[in-house]
Known about the structure:
By secondary structure, this protein is α/β, with parallel strands linked by helices. It contains five helices and six strands; from the N terminus they run E-E-H-H-E-E-H-E-H-E-H. Helices cover about 40% and strands about 20% of the residues. It has a six-stranded mixed beta sheet with strand order 1-6-5-2-4-3, sandwiched between helices. The mean pLDDT is about 95.
Amino acid sequence: MTVLNATVGDITTQNVDAIVNAANTRMRGGGGVDGAIHRAAGPSLLEECIARFPNGLETGKAGWTHGFNLPARFVIHTPGPNYRAGQTDQRLLESSYRNCLAVADELGVDSIAFPLISAGVYGWPKEDAVKIAVDTLSNTPTQVSQIRIVTLDAHIQSTVQELLTRYA
Ligand code: APR
């Protein structure tokens, strides 16, 4: 049985087995969630990204590294679609969520925290980003027992929670 809930907070401080990074295809760090995770994890994270993703990672795919100085044991990285650059096919965003859960299942992860992928720098309209996150995570079979959607914004959190109760 998988429990989904929404939390206001910083994804880097979440005490879960894995946190998801809203990465880019270069996989060498960046701003937003990506920057916060690299800062909190420490320089070993970039070293492992270079080693495990020498050619980066395709949009919508997912791959893992260790969490190093983070509370989370693993970071599951996924480059979401860049809406601002014209990547508006929602199947790409859905596959980011779905592939992160597939990697979590490979790792035997029991609890995972997701940010709202593509909803920041990549400019996906927030309401739609929330809907796609909740739809996809509610309908993807997984062994993960606890899924958290983490956002810095209390208004967005209540929108997520409201949608989740509709799915419950
Ligand atoms: N904890 C939780 N949520 C966060 C945090 C944080 N520390 N920092 C930002 N967010 C929220 C943003 O407000 C947004 O709603 O996460 C969502 C995703 O925002 P971004 O991090 O900008 O990710 P994205 O829109 O997918 O853009 C990815 O931005 O940071 C660069 O290297 C990254 O090029 C990539 C692109």
